[in-house]
Amino acid sequence: MSKRRLKFSKLNMAKYISHLDLLRCFTRSIMRAELPVKYSNGFNPHQKITFSLPLSIGVTSDSEFVDIDFEDGIKDSEIMERLNNNLPPDMRILNVGDIKDSANDIVSAKYQVKIISDKVITDEKVKGFFDMPEYTIMKKTKKKGEQPVNLMDFIIDYSISEHSESSDGSILQMELILSAGGQKNLKPEIAVKALSDYLATEINIISYDIHRTEIYISEKEGLKVFE
Questions:
Q1: What one-character DSSP code corresponds to residue 114?
Q2: CA–CA separation, 74 vs 147, rounded Å?
Q3: N or C: lower Cβ tally within 10 Å for the chain?
Q4: H-type alpha helices, the chain
Q5: What percent of the chain lies above the pLDDT cut of 70?
Q6: What is the phi/psi pair of residue 76, to 5°?
Q7: Which Pfam families does the record associate with it (predicted)?
Q8: How many other β-carbons are positioned within 10 Å of the β-carbon of residue 24?
Q9: Arithmetic mean of pLDDT, 216-220
């Protein structure tokens, strides 16, 4: 098979690379690596590259995927080595393999969230927010612009990982599994902002970091890690 799925990470400063710039980054890195990639037909041929569920700017991840159509004969290990020698230092290819799942079947994604606040965000306050049956936010839609939606319809699961203290403030670390994909999608920063607004009268969120760890598709047995 000439079409390969590459899993890669975007860390540190790479989180500020937009989707369009990410495409340019891969295109140039492939050219520098002299990899035998296939091109589209027509007056303006381009490399056959497709990303699955691109990230928002400002979010890091070690669960990014890109499908690239290569000419026959190149080994997966060679693709990984040559690309890693040419990609920016905060981006790394983690795996090269077969395409097992369709990006159209993606239904959710898992995120690690680190929040720094001026006061402790207790477990009770977090549960009080995420256990609400309804919390209305304004969400952009492709066809109707901003529309009121129930945030909780997009929250699949949450868990609190750790509480700690630092010189910057109180730290809360948690995991969120949110709806993702073409049918139903929520950017993780929207969930964090909603939590911040909910706590605003008592607690000020100073900063937060979001890191994507998994993408899922749905099967009869439940969620399955996207491959």
A1: E
A2: 48
A3: N
A4: 19-33, 76-84, 123-130, 188-199
A5: 100
A6: -60, -40
A7: DUF2344
A8: 11
A9: 90
- Stretch (H or E) spanning 146: strand 145-150
Strand partners, 147: 139
Name residue, tokens 């993606």: 106
Give whole-number Cα distances, 71 to 34, 101, 108, 126, 147, in Å: 12, 21, 32, 51, 45
Collapsing DSSP to helix, strand or coil, 7 comes out as strand
Q: What is the pLDDT of residue 51?
A: 95
Cα–Cα distance measured from residue 153 to residue 130, given in angstroms and rounded to the nearest whole number: 11
- 15 token code pair: 């989180």
Distance CA 195, CA 178 (A): 14
Domains in the chain, start-ordered, CATH in brackets?
A: 3-99 (3.30.70.580), 104-225 (3.30.70.3190)
pLDDT in tens, 64-108: 999 999 998 899 999 999 999 999 999 999 999 999 999 999 999
pTM over 0.85: yes
d(CA 52, CA 208): 25
Residues 155-179 have a mean pLDDT of 92
